[in-house]
Amino acid sequence: MTPDLLLALALFAFVGSISPGPSNFMLLASGANFGFRRTIPQVLGITAGLSSVLVAVGLGLGALLTAWPALGLALKVAGGSYLLYLAWKIAMARSMAKESKAGERPLSFLQSASFQWINPKAWVAATSIMAIYTNASDPFWSVAMITATVALVNIPSVAVWAAFGMALKGFLADPIRLKYFNIAMGLLLAATLWPLLK
Prior knowledge:
By secondary structure, the chain is mainly α. It contains ten helices and no strands. The N and C termini lie far apart (35 Å). The mean pLDDT is 85. It comes from Lacibacterium aquatile. It is a multi-pass membrane protein. It is found in: Cell membrane.
């Protein structure tokens, strides 16, 4: 991969990673409700999950989903349902981490990694990146390089959302503000389903 192509890929990954989407809205809410440190496993899980989707698409899973539309539809339905469940949980959260109920906690590494497999934005990004940047003459090496580059760009880009959420913590110490913030985050997360409905 040439330096120019690598730079273009890094820029593409940055824009895709830092732009609003389901995972970033969840990170914003988690940073505000649980703090940055407790949200780190979620940040790392998002990157690991996206990396696994990239590898799968790069090795041919995207073609399988195109060949079997029912499988793609099942993935969309499962992803949409889980996303709505998470949106509901965020919208109904009413207290910060120190005051939260025993069962309330940020998504774990495994939960956020698994979510990328049903995250529409992750699939669109993975399919686009692999279609544009994979080198047909050396597919395995190019898939590895693409995945490593995207992961290196993704971690700090998505971490910004968790940090921004944490920066809002003081403002959200007021229970009324926190309530409306969480409702807004839940609605924004649910709204990310719009592209699936087209």
